[in-house]
Amino acid sequence: MRTFALLAILSTSFLFCNAQTKKDNGWISLFDGVSTKGWHSYGKAAAGSAWKADNGAIHLDASEKGDWQSAKGGDIVTNEEFENFHLKLEWKISKDGNSGIIFLVHEDTAKYNYTFKTGPEMQVLDNAGNEDGKIYKHHAGDLYDLIACYKETVKPVGEWNLAEVIVNKGKLELRLNGTTVVKTSLWDDSWKKLIEGSKFKTMPGFGTFKKGKIALQDHGYDVWYRNIEIKKL
Q: Would you state the pLDDT for residue 11?
């Protein structure tokens, strides 16, 4: 028991020191590795119980089905809003799985019942197994339904992928596994034209907010996220 307790203390100390180092370098950890602290299900006070800290990752356990989402999940969002930022995280999807990294989310459930009603999404997907893999602009790394990847760099299902989202002074860049896969401007006429040609054209709040929360999507499939860090620009 004493050995176990000592290991637990050392593990906690490592996580704390690691987070402090990231802060010293301008990076802020959004996941402590052991809990869902700092996150909550959209429109609720805490993260749904389907979201679990599991071996150093936030894992959506989608075994208990709801409608198109899991029964006790829902998208989780950060407690804090971000404006100009560089987000970096790793994701791993289950076979046939679907999820997404949604950003600039405006949390107002009276007007918007889902995170995707306001926030653009970097797609997370098993391209080979999920039906969205057959749809243009719906592949892993795409700016979902808006811009397809310049180059597909996603790894096979079950492997970790490094995703980066950079929003800075009206410019957006998406990177997947070290490669820039999407670059575009935000909120200008070309952005509005992109939205008009997408499934989001009937959602008046979509892509309009210049500050918002980060969301991890529950699309009814198991997914894992780890090493979630953000730098304010």
A: 44
Locus of tokens 């090493």? 227
Q: Per the structure block, which two tokens stand in for 84?
A: 């100009």
If one counts every other C-beta atom within 10 angstroms of the C-beta of residue 95, the result is 12
Fold of the domain built from segment(s) 31-232 = Jelly Rolls (2.60.120)
Contact criterion met (CB below 8 Å) for 100 and 121: yes
Cα separation, 83 vs 230, in Å, equals 11
Q: How many CB atoms lie within 10 A of CB 65?
A: 10
- C-alpha 45: how far from its chain's center? 19
- Is residue 144 within 8 A of residue 150, CB to CB? The reply is no
Over the chain (233 residues), the average pLDDT of each successive run of 10 is 41 40 80 97 97 97 94 97 98 98 98 98 98 97 98 96 98 98 98 98 98 98 98 98
- Cα separation, 97 vs 4, in Å, equals 36
